[in-house]
Amino acid sequence: MIRSRTLLAIAAFVPLAGCISFGAKPPPSLLSLNSALSVPAGQTQSSATAPTITILVPGAAQAIAGTRVPVQASQTSIAYVANAQWVEPPNRMFVRLLIDTVPAKTGRIVLSSAQSFSDPGAVLSGELRSFGIDAGTNEAVVTFDGSLIRTSGKVVEKRRFEARVPVSAIAAGPVGIALNQAANTVAGEVADWVGK
Q: What residues does the ABC-type transport auxiliary lipoprotein component domain cover (predicted)?
């Protein structure tokens, strides 16, 4: 008797299985960053002839720690761009942009965490402070606070980088293009700083 009631209860829920959703409907496509500069395929790099650097994943403000694209609606309120979502959090995409851009502009060899265990070379870290849209100015804004240790010493250099790119409309397509451009601008400026 108990078994037949259990089967009956399960059978009652089967038609509902197609109606239940445990998350928001995903957007038609996901946004990503594309590096404007990178080392050409097939080019060999050697730490015997070039300086090394370890680039760490930057911290991120809570508003940009997820995959949605924030819009600073006012000084104290944030909204999100409708139907716009990153393929992964911006700080992880931004570090890959730096990993492509720094060696292309400076000739430095970027080491992974495992490779840098004994001698990390220079170390670049920091915090991604903004990575979204300023509704007041209709601009994509990328702000990165960089921290650089050039040698094994304890001297730390800090510098803020910011790029602003006009956005034609606050919609997924234009926003993705403008943020990609702003992120590449910042990555290029960081590479110039590292290469001094």
A: 37-191
> In CATH, what number is assigned to the domain containing residue 189?
3.40.50.10610
* Stated pTM of the model: 0.82
CA 186, distance to chain mean position in Å, is: 12
How far the first Cα of the chain sits from its last, in Å, is 80
Residues 6+ apart with CB under 8 A from 22: none
Question: What proportion of the chain, given as a percentage, has pLDDT over 90?
Answer: 48
> Which residue, among 69, 91, 92, has the nearest Cα to 143 in the 3D structure?
91
The CB density around residue 88, as the number of other CB atoms within 10 Å, is 14
Q: Which residue has the tokens 């957007």?
A: 27
Could you give the number of structural domains in the chain?
Answer: 1
**Quick check: 116 pLDDT over 80?**
no
Whether the predicted pLDDT of 11 surpasses 70: no
| Structural domain span for residue 173 | 50-194
Domain-located, residue 102: yes
31: in domain: no
Q: Could you tell me if residue 26 is inside a domain?
A: no
Burial 45-66 (b: 16+ CB within 10 A, else e): eeeeeeebbbbebbebeebbee
User: What is the tens place of the pLDDT at every residue in 89-100?
Assistant: 999 999 999 999
**Residue 17: inside a domain, yes or no?**
no
